[in-house]
């Protein structure tokens, strides 16, 4: 086979693979009503190194929710479970408001002004049930699930296997052109602060910097799911706001509003075994074969 013919075949295959992830208008409209807008993330095949050596990571193109799942969307899911009489599932999925304090105000999950903030204080089982519910509501053509940790980090880096430390494409934390922060996090000067054993520590990393006369210790609530600026794939808040669960149980990435700059890196890994005010999630969609 001639080289030009092979190139054309490969190009057609690539276009077909991307087109297979294109939803129709009806799907987009229903997704927007139930949970929000999804963006396309290209497939990947690359090698990563860890303590166990090199491994090849391969996954097909998928679509990812542009934002973290909001309180409003999650409450719609919970209400529907009650309407269906699925009370056992409701008990697994309900928001654990007892775990909200003192990090979140008592009205965080009931105040209308917070409805489009990220949901938190939910279990891994609740997130999985939400994904299954969304698959059912969408008619079964698309499967919705949590991203794997590699899919999540690849999307956070705007479709790059390796590279920068933060989702806006830098190795440091800067304000935007108007002087506003680009992430929601615990502001203790900047990216060279980490939290260890409940104490703040300055660390020496080549991609971080420490300004002695920087901001005072400060933290805020999680912010609106469309706050700040999106990355190059139009994904919001991949770093900071709330850490996001991945498919691997008990692991979340990206740090939260209670974590200092170093701990909201894309690779920042949070472990959990119960609902937490620091942790929420977003979902991905893949067309069923």
Kindly describe this structure.
This protein has 289 residues and is an alpha+beta fold. It has helices at 3-19, 25-34, 71-83, 87-93, 124-137, 149-156; strands at 38-41, 44-50, 53-59, 62-65, 142-145, 193-196, 199-202, 243-245, 251-253, 269-271, 279-280, 284-287. It has a 4-stranded antiparallel beta sheet with strand order 1-4-12-5. Strands 10-9-8-11 form a 4-stranded mixed beta sheet, covered by helices on one side. Strand 8 (243-245) and strand 9 (251-253) form a beta hairpin.
Oligomeric category: single chain
CATH second-level architecture: Alpha-Beta Complex
What is the helix/strand order?
HHEEEEHHHEHEEEEEEE
Helix content: 10-25%
Percent of residues in beta strands: 15-25%
- List the total number of helices: 6
Q: What strand order characterises the main sheet?
A: 1-4-12-5
**Largest sheet, strands/sense/barrel:** 4 strands, antiparallel
CA radius of gyration is 20 Å
CA distance, first residue to last residue: 30 Å
Using the coordinates shown, work out and report the CATH topology.
paralog of FGE (formylglycine-generating enzyme)
Descriptive keywords:
about 290 residues; alpha+beta; paralog of FGE (formylglycine-generating enzyme); 4-stranded antiparallel beta sheet; 4-stranded mixed beta sheet; 6 helices; about 25% helix
